[in-house]
Amino acid sequence: MTTAPWSALRVDGVRLLQRLQDLGQFGALEGGGTNRLALSDADKAGRDWTVQQMRDLGMAVQVDAIGNVVGTCAGMQDLPPVMTGSHIDTVRTGGLYDGNYGVMAGLEVVATLRAAGVRTRRPIQVAFFTNEEGARFQPDMMGSLVMVGGMPLQAALATQAVDNAATVGDELARIGYAGSAPVGAPVVDSFVELHIEQGPVLEQQDRLIGVVQGVQGICWMQLRFTGTSNHAGTTPMALRHDAGMCAMRCAAFIHNLVVRYGGSQLGTVGGLQLKPNLINVIAQEAVMTVDLRNTQAAPLRQAQAEVLAFANRIASENGVQCEHRQLADFEPVDFDADLVDCVEQHAHALGLSTLRMPSGAGHDAQMLARVCPSAMVFVPSRQGLSHNVHEHTDPDQLVHGANVLLQVLLHQANR
Amino acid sequence: MTTAPWSALRVDGVRLLQRLQDLGQFGALEGGGTNRLALSDADKAGRDWTVQQMRDLGMAVQVDAIGNVVGTCAGMQDLPPVMTGSHIDTVRTGGLYDGNYGVMAGLEVVATLRAAGVRTRRPIQVAFFTNEEGARFQPDMMGSLVMVGGMPLQAALATQAVDNAATVGDELARIGYAGSAPVGAPVVDSFVELHIEQGPVLEQQDRLIGVVQGVQGICWMQLRFTGTSNHAGTTPMALRHDAGMCAMRCAAFIHNLVVRYGGSQLGTVGGLQLKPNLINVIAQEAVMTVDLRNTQAAPLRQAQAEVLAFANRIASENGVQCEHRQLADFEPVDFDADLVDCVEQHAHALGLSTLRMPSGAGHDAQMLARVCPSAMVFVPSRQGLSHNVHEHTDPDQLVHGANVLLQVLLHQANR
């Protein structure tokens, strides 16, 4: 990599941290953390403030029909822009960084360029997408999904909140973010999202920058075993139809499967509800959740098939019914190899340690990857905590990540 | 067995069934079944009616300080009496037969003897014991436990209800059953309890009379696994402290152990509570119940030790804490071999098919077995249902059981 004239540029760390603190005031929770559910009053306040920041930086702001907001910093030529961004909605007990960090760092990049009088060849855009979290309206990543044509606009607007009858369309109108710009795949040169890891890997391996190669595929299932409730003391083992036992054996099978597959295979049984859930009564019903993830599509499909086959077999052997409901099914996403290399090279040029890794969580970048070369940059999350008011990344780590974003955007926008 | 002069005596089936129906009216539930929780108003009403039945049969009635009621039908000689009986309290959604059947059949035996003008050598007693179910006050089998000296009277009287501040002592006084007779091991010749099986074995094996050889030992434990909550997508398997996975592997281990032990070993994980119990969050806590039963003390102890060792090992391997709480621990009870033979012989003499079997549930007879030769007679339970408003035994099966009780009591009381 030849040294570019802008390679000595650095973001203003204090200004970045201040923006994060300022944004965190909207929906701030007592004792720390943020509650800025999508399209709530707090979200509106955060959006208004962020839009004002964009305007103050001289950016042109557009809002589309699903409420995605894009600020544009003009380039020297009228070429497809290089986009960065993330989201500023949070879960009900969220932290200051999930999503917000990527948007505020994007603004800080623009502020840095502006302060240095640097103008790029291509325009640079900073976006925040509607309802990434999915905590109030499902599915998650809604704004970016609609933008890339993965969900019809009308269906998204008609989506009801999980806790009342308000729709996305109602709430966008109410808070003033039912924008006039059309939705649809934007003509974007490339997309880079900076985000906290939300997992413990970088911290455990003592690396500063995660070079994200892709997003794991996700298979979410609910398995419902239905057997017969009976007395735990008077029912011989051979005469039981124990729904709970079937579910728990299935959970043990999943754990063994994950160990057997190795690689990037993950498996979690985080939810299990037994009925009647009493010490001396054989469970008549067990409803369990299965969360399988893999960066490779083939083993993920194979794992799903094996789990279902085992569940049906153990149920059948025990005279128990097994029903299966698919709750989510996302193929793995591979980010653009050149852009991933670019992230890694610029981190190294900044003297930062890196780790190539998949993203375990879903991000807007996986939607943008459908329409343009995309990549992500991760910074460490203390103890891997996220969706948690105790979410934390050290200030210097936040600044390192923003500098990587700055350099990658400069590289892309000056191509 | 030589034919005794009374071997042709039979109970009046219609009268027996009528008494069961009549008693079932106290605390009757809409649509069937009975709610006669210990020392409730409904229990008082059932007790008052049953005491009147005893008096109408010419029995002397005594109530002891823990509310156990004993009706005595005098014998020709002043010898230790032969006792039968059970309980008339029920669970909140109980059936007509659990406990009640044994008491009503005892009264029917006395009514039969009275109608036939038969007087036995030894007195015959019919008892009902306080709070056998343990549904309102714990422990269960309280009245018989106190009677045989297994629990101090004062501790029993001070026991609070599970749902309010009322004590056993308060409630006995309130319903008029804080009796004047002293508690303490009664001088009883022998004890025979007739009961529904509460399990499916007799029905499955198409036998009419269960010759109960003893009561299984019971080991109840609560295992609490405490790990760390984390994101199911971003936390590598090797960095997890998954409390739910530990619990569910432990449940699978218990099932394998039971299969490996065979014999009378039973194992049930009927209760499991995960926290936070979400599809994409690794459980930070899993509280599971373990119900182990065996008719033999040694393998039951061994099973308990193996389960605890496994729980601690899986927890330790996963960086999870495991706490263990013993909730119940009853040694197996063997009934008196001669009295068990006596039950079997009289069933055969009546032309009834039999099965030697353990009792899976606890019964007052296991308490009486501490102070006198004791045994039990079981009749089938349709589908093994019990503690259930759909509890059912066919009328002719109820009558068969009462005739076995009649003959066994005559045999014992005329020795």
In summary, what is this structure?
Two copies of one chain form a homodimer. Chain A is α+β, with helices and mostly antiparallel strands and 415 residues long. In chain A, 35% of the residues lie in helices and 21% in strands.
Describe the structure.
Chains A, B: InterPro entries: Amidase_Cbmase, Bact_exopeptidase_dim_dom, Peptidase_M20, Peptidase_M20_dimer. Chains A, B: Keywords: Hydrolase. Chains A, B: Belongs to the peptidase M20 family. Chains A, B: Residues 214-316 form the Peptidase M20 dimerisation domain. Two copies of one chain form a homodimer. The first copy, chain A, has twelve helices and 16 strands. The first copy, chain A, is α+β, with helices and mostly antiparallel strands. In chain A, helix 1 packs across helix 3, helix 3 (100-116) crosses helix 12 (395-413) and helix 8 packs antiparallel against helix 9. In chain A, strands 1, 2, 3, 4, 5, 6, 14, 15 and 16 form a nine-stranded mixed β-sheet that branches. In chain A, strands 7, 9, 10, 12 and 13 form a five-stranded antiparallel β-sheet that branches. The first copy, chain A, folds into two domains: 13-215 and 333-413, Zn peptidases (Aminopeptidase, 3-Layer(aba) Sandwich); 217-330, Alpha-Beta Plaits. The first copy, chain A, has helices spanning 13-24, 41-56, 100-116, 142-147, 153-157, 168-175, 201-204, 243-261, 297-317, 337-349, 364-368, 395-413; strands at residues 60-63, 69-73, 82-86, 124-128, 190-196, 209-215, 217-226, 230-231, 266-268, 272-275, 281-282, 285-294, 321-330, 333-334, 354-359, 374-379. At the A-B interface, strand 8, helix 8, strand 9, strand 10 and strand 11 of A face strand 8, helix 8, strand 9, strand 10 and strand 11 of B.
